Amino acid sequence: MSRLQSLDALRGFDLFFIMGGATMLAALNEWLPCGFTEELAIQMKHVAWNGLTHHDTIFPLFLFIAGISFPFSLAKQRANGRSEWQIHRKVIVRGILLVTFGILYNGLLDHWDFANARYASVLGRIGLAWMFAALIFIHTGWRARGVITASILVGYYLLARFVPAPDAAGADIFSAQGSIIGYVDRLLLPGILYGGNYDPEGILGIIPAIATALLGMFTGEWVKLDREGLTPRRKALWMVAAGILLGIAGWLWSFDFPINKALWTSSFVLVVASYSLLLFALFYYVIDILQWRRWTLFFTVIGMNSITIYLGQKFIRFAYTSEKLFGGLINLLPENSHAFLNAAGYITVCWLFLYILYRNRLFLKV
């Protein structure tokens, strides 16, 4: 099967919100306040603790997409004659590199203060969860992977539900202080914790994140499957059905195990997998089946250099360039439009940077 263009576009759609899209859409409420833009602004921010907004889906969707890609990558590596040892080495090196990039993203180079550095990170969780999921995928069949995924989600629930933090001091078992998940971070995670008494990208949360990556790998394996009578349209239809079932299961589970991104609860895994699968099914149907692709360039340019733009925003002063190019004009316009237009200018500069790389076939691959 040829490269799934829907994956590049979907990855770009996801990273668009990190590349200033969330800021721009939230700022729309300052410029054109109404019920719709107010709700849109809410969706562009994380929930305080339990619950879910669109902004909470960005991180797990990226991990889910990484999972979809792996069955194709693995098949290509084997077809190209790579040994199993080389494949394993690449998987492990990728995981370690993403952990390292995550620490650098957190600012280690700013002060070289190892004692007060933050070691947990978004990239670190993606790297480790994807790495362990990939190793499981390599060594097991789909039935065993299904049992492992279910066991991870149920086991994590039992741990979180029935084992409180020894220092909970009466706090709710699903709170940062009362949860065993936060306690393990306080006990074992070196450096500083993002949340003070827990880290949203901490140690135990890697376990259910493995399930997120595995669910993506199930999806990639399904799309890759070549079986008589199983057309791409039927694949998309079955993905929609599976996405609905995952969403219902996650919603029902949430009555006992709240949907919580910071704890990466099992209900969160299922609900966000539902969203990810339904969104991928839509992109797959429109782009790879119907081949309506003209609109995808904007997102594809972002998606094919996703790590570049994620890290680049930390090390390149895109905001400075945007201010020099558009700041004077924006200041001539109504003040309540400035936040929206500044974000739009920032996105423009970032996208043009990525487009230059895209045109020259320069991609950062990890």
| Average residue pLDDT | 96
The strand count comes to: 0
Order of helices and strands: HHHHHHHHHHHHHHH
The biggest sheet, with number of strands, parallel, antiparallel or mixed sense and barrel status, is: none
Unreliable stretches (pLDDT < 50, length at least 5) are none
Whole-number total of structural domains? 1
Give the N-terminus to C-terminus distance in angstroms.
Answer: 22 Å
- Radius of gyration, rounded? 21 Å
Which band does the percent of strand residues land in? under 5%
Tally of helical runs: 15
Molecular shape: globular
List keywords for this structure.
366 residues; mainly alpha; 68% helix
Kindly describe this structure.
The chain is an all-alpha fold. It has one domain. 68% of the residues lie in helices and 0% in strands. 44% of the residues are buried.
